[in-house]
Fold:
Amino acid sequence: MRDGQPDPRRGIRRQALSLALAVAPFGLAFGVASTQAGLSWVQASGFSVLVFAGSAQFAAVEILGRGGSAAAAIAAGLLLNVRSLAFGLVMAPSLEGPRWKRAVWSQLMIDESTAVGSAQASPRWRRYGFVYTGVAIFIAWNISTAVGAVALGSSSTLITRAGIDAAVPAAFLALLWPRLASPDQRAVALGGAVAALALVPVAPAGVPVIAGGAVALAVAAWERR
Structure:
């Protein structure tokens, strides 16, 4: 308790641990995918340390594995990570500080850390939730990437047989669901989801994400009017 406000640390840590456990299977899957695309375990681990971008990493190794160029892989990753610009706008007021510190924090700008941080009531706890969750997932993601590349890289069907590929979408739904409290919020989410799903079979990686966000914004503006 501080200044009459409850201390949310325990809840934040519980959420961060749950999300880290949900992300770990996805990291295993990325390690396997990287090995199958021709990367060594050192390259896969370095990719996760330096990029740390989940779905963007998957898109990049898929393109490389199919013989695509590095430029195409980078472009796909950038498209998928355009949403991070919105995350930065949401979290920037709570992440004030020297440029070097903000640069370090930007490495943690992912869906899960932003979701936990932005759910807190005060700037102090928003920053705490963002950093704590980001660090927890960074550790889980990198350990699981290395394990997947070293121990499971020879298995081409383990991911789908074990249902590991469904772990992170399920975690995202768990993050989103509590926020859909009103009919307007559900309409915005549904509009974005329908647009993204419709484009998945025909559009390049990243485009469905951008289109879904654009449709969600349009629905939100229409709802406000």
